[in-house]
Structures are given as structure tokens and as C-alpha cells.
Amino acid sequence: MTLNGWLQILLFCGIVLLLVKPLGGYMTRIFNGERTLLSPVLVPIERGLYRLAGTSDREEQHWISYTFAMLIFNLAGVLVLYALQRFQGVLPYNPAGMGAVDPALSFNTAVSFVSNTNWQNYGGESTMSYLTQMAGLTVQNFVSAATGIAIAVALIRAFSRASGKAIGNFWVDMTRATLYVLLPICIVLTLVYVWLGVPQTLGPYVDATTLEGAKQTIALGPVASQLAIKMLGTNGGGFFNANSAHPFENPDAISNLIQMVSIFAIGAALTNVFGRMVGNQRQGWAILAAMGVLFVVGVGVTYWAEAAGNPLMHAFGLAGGNMEGKEVRFGVALSSLFAVITTAASCGAVNAMHGSFTALGGMIPLINMQLGEVIVGGVGAGFYGILLFVLIAIFVAGLMVGRTPEYLGKKIEAKEVKMAVLAILCLPAAMLVFTAIAVVLPQAVASIGTAGPHGFSEILYAYTSAAANNGSAFGGLTGNTPWYNVTLGLGMLAGRFLVIIPALAIAGSLVTKKTVPASAGTFPTDGPLFVGLLVGTIVIVGGLTFFPAIALGPVVEHLVSVAGLTF
After folding, report:
1. pLDDT for the residue 315
2. Total H helices, total E strands in the chain
3. Which three-class secondary structure state does DSSP give residue 475?
4. Average pLDDT of 458-474?
5. Torsion over CA of 494, 290, 144 and 510, rounded to 10 degrees?
6. What is the pLDDT of residues 232-281, one digit of tens each?
7. How far is CA 203 from CA 71, 137, 198, 219, in A?
8. E strands along 134-198, which residues?
9. How crowded is residue 558: how many other Cβ atoms within 10 Å of its Cβ?
10. Mean of pLDDT over the chain
11. If we measure between CA atoms, which residue out of 126, 108, 105 comes closest to residue 117?
């Protein structure tokens, strides 16, 4: 580890913190229906979209109607994206002549992008046409991110409203998230990326002749526009197979910094939206502080492990940081930071190959996802995910003092706790059950690229990434098989919608409750004690659930590496 490396990490953290209040204030005004700088231009467009959809910003929905609208919209997204892939061979904007995508892979990819996972069992530049990339994948990058933001805002309303039945309007929330937040920022980011050298063209691939006289085809396309939303919306699906390790997607340290900040910007700012809407910004800062503690510990462990290098090298008397699978232009510090950021958020974009990290360095990205990606998390998804842990922490605190738990004046009762537990448990169920089946199924084991505990980690990481809606991978696993395409797709659906539905049920229950004034016995939820309780709850739940699996994978791999053994 170096001083320069830590300075780069601190610079990133500082920029994110500086963005929290202004971006949080802007989003609060948007979702409260207040006027913003963009209103003169966007309000007519917004109202026109409502007329087409047959709704209005004055209409609100019960949580069941809100949930139904969200599910129908996402089902339509899966069907349209599946059809685009299956028929891309006869559709326009296909200069490379890409054929129809395999049915199982089409299902996996459609579910992946609609669920904001962006797991890619294919190479983008060799599989998807320009039309599929733009009208299918990029569009889903916008609306899947907007869906997550909408769910988070609906849950925030449940806490902020004194009493009522409605939690908002899904169509309005999603439209505003797309039109006022994602689209304007992405237009600016796209122009910046083009300025930095990222391609943005509908022209055909370019043929070049190397110095040795060989022919080489250089893939191009509308890269910058997809790059902007893949980071800001924490989607992560790259135009190129190498993702943000590809120089066309990530040319230099400046583009790398912009991408990392983009991943965290909206997720961090939503904590401020929460504080503003409930009338106490300290509540939002407390949640962000809990996220920050877990993030800093994760960065520290990963950076230390990668800077120390592979223990096997030490066993042979060789020292030095682990540069395997990393780009020289980023080095150990920025590769470690990027890995923790992209797995703390449900992004999944990579600028280094996680499967080439040391055992302990690769363990932290795995743990980040297994904790539910609540360390800032995906846009919206991370925030409503951590609110589920907040309810559990408040319930535990209530048991300690022997009184009905309350949070922001709302009594947390059996229904809310049951729904929170159900949502939290669906993730380990999808991750561990599929992993257990895959490690004994011959056709699944045949896809492992590495023997020993690292091979187990490849399977565990794949199902963890799918259910956590992340999309990154330990690259040694061959995932483009019928078994993995179907089961990973099912894991993505479970990890997305079996969390959203209980979260909206909680919102529907809380919004009907009257706000109870704070009393001398009310547990304070805006100070260090609550931050510690929340962090402890997240770590204990994750530790008890996943420790046996982590022990079989990264921990065993590290121990045998220290002993100088290989497989």
C-alpha cells in the first residue's frame, strides 16, 4: 500500500460526499413535484407521457396497484428484449451481421438487464447488434434503474407521511427518475466520455493492419451512451466483453474516476433524499455513515490483500503486489477500489478481473454482494435494501429495552418484521441453494475453470452475483450453458422481485400508520449508537448466513496458498 493509493481513495470518497447534498436536494424536489431548473423544458414532455400512459401526476396508487404496475412494466421489458435478441438478424442497425441469440442466452440476458443485474454470458461486440445494444440493453439500463429509484422513493413516502393509503404513482416516479435524473446527467456524461476518447458511432467495425501485416477487426459502436447509464444506473453491462478494463470503455485515470463516482452518486444521495423527506437530515447521514463504515473496511482489506500479493509468491521468496488480471494504467489501488465500489453497489462493471484477485482480495467483493449490496448499493435498490436491515435493527433494539420498536414515529410491528425477514432471506436462499446443486451436478461442475476451493468460489460468486443483481463474475466459470443461463436467470428474478414485493408491502403497511411523537423512551436513530447497531446487524446476519460457504472458498484458498499448496 502506498500514500498515493490512499490519496486516490480519499479523493473518491470526498467527491461522493460533496455530491450527496446537492444531488439529494435536487431529487427531493423532483419527487415532491416541485419546480426545478429543467422544468420549463421537461414538464411538457412529462405531461405528454402521462397522457399516453393514461395517468396523471395527481393520481396515486395503493401499494398493491403500485406493485402490479411495476411487475407488468418489467414483464413487458423482458418480452421486448427477448424478442429483439431473437430477431436481431433480420432487424436494422446490424453492420456486423450478428445472428439470432440462443434462446437460453436470450432469456438470461433479458432477465439480467430488466432486473438491473447485467450479467453477461456473452461478448457484447461479438454477439449483440447496435439495435439490440441501444433499443434493448441501453433502454433497460435506464428503466431498470428508474424502477429501483421509484421503489426507494415509495418506501420513503411511507415513513414521511403521517397517515394515508397511497404510496405514490409508479408511472410518475419512474418517469421522473428517468426524465429529470438519469437522462440529463447521462447526456453530460456521454459528451465527457466522447471528449476523453470513448467511441460513439453507428458506423461499421474498422479493419486494420498490424505492424506484422495481420488483419485485425476493431469493434466500435455507440459505446459512450451505454457507458454513461451503465455506471450512473449501476447496471454494469459493458459494450465490450472486457467491460471497463477495455481502453475504449475506460481510456485513462480521469474516466476511471468519473465512472467510480457515477456508480455511488445517486445511491449515496438517496440517503439525503430520505433525510429531507422525513424532515430530519441526520437520519439520512446516519444511514450513510453505516454504509461508509462497511465500505472503508472493505476497501482497506482488499487494498491490503492485493498490495501484499499472492502468498504463493511469498512462499517461493518472491514479493510484490498482485498485478495479475489488472490494467497497468490503473494499478493495484484503483483496481481494488473499483472492485469494492462495483460490488458494494449492484453495478458489476469491472476494470480488473476479480477471479485473478488474491483469495482475501476476492473475498470482499463476494461478501459485499452477500450482505445484500446495501453499502450504497444499486440506485434505489441499495437504499430500500438497507431500510430492511434498519427495521431488523430497530426490532432488536426494541427487544433490548422491552418496548414496541418505533422508527421515525412509526411503530414497527410483526407484519413489517416478517416482510423484512422474508426479503432478506430470499437472497441467501437463491445464492446458496443453487450453489449447492451446481457443485454436485456434473454439467455444472464441468464449467469450472479452476480446481480446488477457487473453483467452488467461481460457482458461489456466480449465483451470489446473480441474486444480488450485480453482474460481475470470477471469469474462470463458463456460464454460457443452458444450466447456468436458466438458473442464473431465475436467481436474478428472485433477487430482484422477491425483495421489491415485501418492501412495497412494508410501505403499504407503514403509510397507514399515524406518526407517534417521540418520547423519553424512544430509541434515537440518528447517532453513533444506532450506526453501530445497524452495522452489527448487517454483519451478523451476513456472517451467520454465509460464513460456512466463505470458509469453503476464499478462506481455504488463502490458507492453502500460505502453506504453498496449489491445485
Report:
1. 61
2. 22, 4
3. coil
4. 92
5. 70
6. 999 888 888 888 899 999 999 999 999 999 999 999 999 999 999 998 99
7. 36, 19, 14, 10
8. none
9. 19
10. 90
11. 108
C-alpha cell of residue 27: 431529487
Q: Is 485 exposed, middle or buried (0-12, 13-18, 19+ CB in 10 A)?
A: buried
Report whether 155 contacts 508 (CB < 8 A): no
Rounded to whole angstroms, the Cα distance separating 262 from 257 reads 8
For residue 498, what are the CA distances in angstroms to 403, 455, 469?
30, 28, 12
- Quick one: pLDDT at residue 428? 92
Residue 180: the pLDDT is: 95
The pLDDT of residue 369: 93
In this predicted structure, the answer to whether residue 98 has a pLDDT above a threshold of 80 is: yes
Above 70 in pLDDT, residue 22? Answer: yes
Q: What is the DSSP string of 69-111?
A: HHHHHHHHHHHHHHHHHHTGGGSSS-TT---PPPHHHHHHHHH
Residue 413's identity, in one-letter code, is E
Cα distances (Å, whole numbers) of residue 563 to 40, 62, 364, 456: 66, 59, 21, 19
| pLDDT number for residue 318 | 63
Helix H, strand E, coil C: the string for 192-220 is HHHHHCCCECCCCCEEEECCCCCEEEECC
Over residues 125-153, mean pLDDT:
90
d(CA 510, CA 384): 14
C-alpha cell at 142: 435506464
* β-sheet bridge partners, residue 208: 216
Query: CA-CA distance, 285 to 272, in Å (whole number)?
Result: 7
Q: Percent of the chain beyond pLDDT 90?
A: 64
Long-range contacts of 552-555 (CB under 8 A, 24+ apart): 552/453, 552/456, 553/363, 553/366, 553/453, 553/454, 553/456, 553/457, 553/460, 554/359, 554/360, 554/362, 554/363, 554/366, 554/453, 554/457, 555/359, 555/363
* pLDDT number for residue 373: 84
Q: CB–CB of 426/495 below 8 Å?
A: yes
Rounded to whole angstroms, how far apart are CA atoms 426 and 164?
29
Per-residue pLDDT tens over the stretch 274-314: 999 998 999 999 999 999 999 999 999 999 999 988 877 76
DSSP string for residues in 20-80: HHHHHHHHHHHHTT---TTHHHHHHHHHHHHHHHT--TT---BHHHHHHHHHHHHHHHHHH
